[in-house]
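Hey,
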Amino acid sequence: MINYLSVENLSHNWGETVLFDDLTFGISEGQKVALIAKNGAGKTTLLNILAQVTPSLEGSVTYRKDIRVGYLPQEPELDNTQTVIEAVFSSDNEEVEVIRAYEEALESGDQEALGDLITKMDHLGAWDYELRIKQILSELKIIRYDQPIKELSGGQRKRVALANLLINEPDFLILDEPTNHLDLDMVEWLEKYLQKSKATLLMVTHDRYFLDRVCNEIMELTDGTLYAYHGNYSYFLEKRAERIANFKQEVEKARSLMKTEREWINRTPSARSTKAKYRVDAYKDLKEKASQSISEEEVKLDIKASRMGKNILNLENVHKAFDELVILKDFTYKFARGEKVGIVGNNGTGKSTFLNIITGHKEADSGSIEVGETIVYGYFKQEGIQIDDSKKVLEVISDIADDINLGNGRTMSAAQFLRFFLFPNEMHHVEVARLSGGEKKRLYLLTVLMKNPNFLILDEPTNDLDIFTLNVLEEYLQTFAGCLLIVSHDRYFMDKLAEHIFVFEGQGQVRDFPGNYSQLQENKALKAKEEKKAQKVESKVKEKQVKERPRKLSYMEQKEFAALEPEMEALEEEKKDIENSLNSGTLGPEEITDAAKRLSEVNEELEEKEMRWLELSELA
């Protein structure tokens, strides 16, 4: 295989924290590699170095000559002075530039420019390329080309940056959390797109289905070292567990042997002579091996929910609309103790508005909402909370409470609570600004859970959390005694937790589906298949009926048929006259434009009349 990327002796640190040391690896043409690591281990930093956004402190990054590299960062930086069409088609690719100009001419109705651009499109053979671009923009729901970039939300900016990347078709793609801010339909489309793509890929993602279906190799960055696994996510889990078990076995063996060697060293001073120096050196190596450990600490979530009474949350005929846009239409539901509900639906169908209504952050237009007296909401919002970046990590927690109630009479100090969630003592006085995106998300999660909620609402909780934290969070939520509402584009997360799904279908319609997300998709595919089959049957029945009932021309059709021949002759005559005038060389620029336009219209009319004549002639 042709080597596309060579990394040698790469080292980097953040202050006194070593992120990785002496990394050496390569990626070859066609490989689709996922990079996995815990939050704060340096995933994004490594991608930034590979994309040559951030310089490395030591080591080298070399790409094969003439390959095009495309990078999608977690938070893309776009030019706020541009419009969507300018940002999407920003490129040094000649075909993309011509297609951008063509689309702009179409938008503005510039007929003169269109003529030249159509010729250029023909010359470059860019029509198929334009069709692929249109499909990408359509799937990513980018339709308002004239919208200024400065008006876009974070999610819209991510989609524009992703569209630009895919349109330019680089040979080597580097993607940092590409599924963040995409709805479920877009995620599934992107998954299929990357499966079919011939591009070489290096990606960081927390979406385990996406990772499992797209990538054929996984690199794990842990304790500054890189481990490669030649398989998908399922294979990685199996082999990683084996690696950790083998390592622990080796360390235990070294510790046991070291005990014997220590006794020999202490008992035999002569062992330090030149003759026995090899054994002393071996003891030093053994001591180093025995002192090693794997940082396999995990977030152990054991916070008890507040007591919950019989009355939970009752909604009756709840209605909400913004002008003509109906969000909820006479929605009625009674929540039961301990139920876990997933929420899905396209952007703009009202998912977040629904959450804000039941938590009292927005008022319904009509209907009743009865919240039980014992209900304590824990609301994890997609946009997070505004934390002063200059604050220390410990201050964020202690500002809410100095002591955290764990239930059953147990309490924990703010510092203990942070250690419990993998924020060691040395991080307590670190400014929030220095935390990674995932560490900030985990800190926010603590501020929600420390209030002992018994009704948890999680709006996109998986964004920026590492896979290992997600696994533990899922385990906690599976045993969570309170009610749980989840909005998430992470299908694996939804499948593991949701017992049934509220499907927001638009115009206020909410369907309650009895199953998880994958079952919902299977049901949707089955219905589509049945509808297609029914349409085929109906079409065949109609065809048969038409064949069995031969008909003749109606009176009006006879009149139409009789008039068609002279009309076609007149059009043929006009066509000949226009062609003669265009070839005469006597027409001015405006006359040429008008004549060419009329010639196109005449050809279309003539073709339509000929097709109609053939159709009617079969019945005559």
